[in-house]
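Worked problem 6 (solution included).
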Amino acid sequence: MIAVENEAALVGMAVFRAAAEVRNRTVVTAGGERHPVSPVSGGFVALRPRGFEQDLTASLGALGWGRPVAFVGDQWGLAGFAAAATESALLEAPSGAARTGVSFVMPDAFLARRKSAIERRLERCRTKPRGAVQTVHAVGVGPWTVADPAEAVRALEGVEDIVMSDWTHANTFPLLPDHDRLTAHVLPYEFGDFDANIHHVDDALRGLHEKGVDRVGLLIEGNPDTYDVLDGLPVTNREIRVAPGVPIGLLAASHNADRFRTDPFARSFAYFSGLHSRHKLPAEQFLGELTCYLAAGITCVLVEMYKGDVELALRAARLSGRPATAVLMSDYFSGSENTLVLNRPDAEAAHHAAEATRGGLCTMLITDEELR
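Solution. The predicted structure is:
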């Protein structure tokens, strides 16, 4: 059983630890390789169910859009019902989804999208690695590393070489205990072409492999499985081990919860990309999906907003029929942190303000909760 750490901490580690437990149970074949699919890899909805009447429509709606749903503390068995009703896969932690646990429902449409995305990204990589198996320890790190470094330290035992982005090297790597013993291989982080980041990591791992390095660390700012470089990284002659973390965009959004009278993450949230073009999703689907979640009172966190569709996101907030506040967060947990709060703004003014505020690492929070 994977227990919920804190009844109020839906955005904590419980969902991501559970996802790491089940990530190898579902695979898709892409590029002649069998790739594990995490239920939190391409955007998802998390719910703490209150009952069938309150949450059935929201969960079925998300599954209908092809989004996995994480059910936390599901004492009504809503996950099993939703899986059966939509002919989706039900993934439970090793001991089953207990009342205080986490379970996932994964629809077929999500798996089809993951397969297509991985195939596209593999096309940018070189031929598959050769030789002995290289074990890659993908470790989710972030600001919490200072308070609770044990999992990251344990995952990197016996590792001497470690790959990371320049952003992580500057802002998070120094937080790791005993980081001076590690040989850092620092890569440029391209905010505007994330598929290129996957390519850079593949090259770095391959180069170390060719030098005989068969155990290597890979630091991920957040959760390795969620919108990150494991999407489309070749797995031939590589064993990927994941030490989960909280996605940095979700963490940034949760740091703004105290702006509101009621915690916007107490009961539910949707976490997905605002850069729908990168994921080959029609703009109409992004608009419809976001509008449906907001209309259902689900707090939404949109990542990849460096080039994400701010204008369409604000339009969804207006179409939802509920009062909405948007918070744009740029470059959190660095020296360039910036926040813009848009409270029921004029559409054109809000769009121009958002464009002027966007940084590299950019996230948008939209909620119907009232500001303090």
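Discussion: The longest helix spans residues 194-210.
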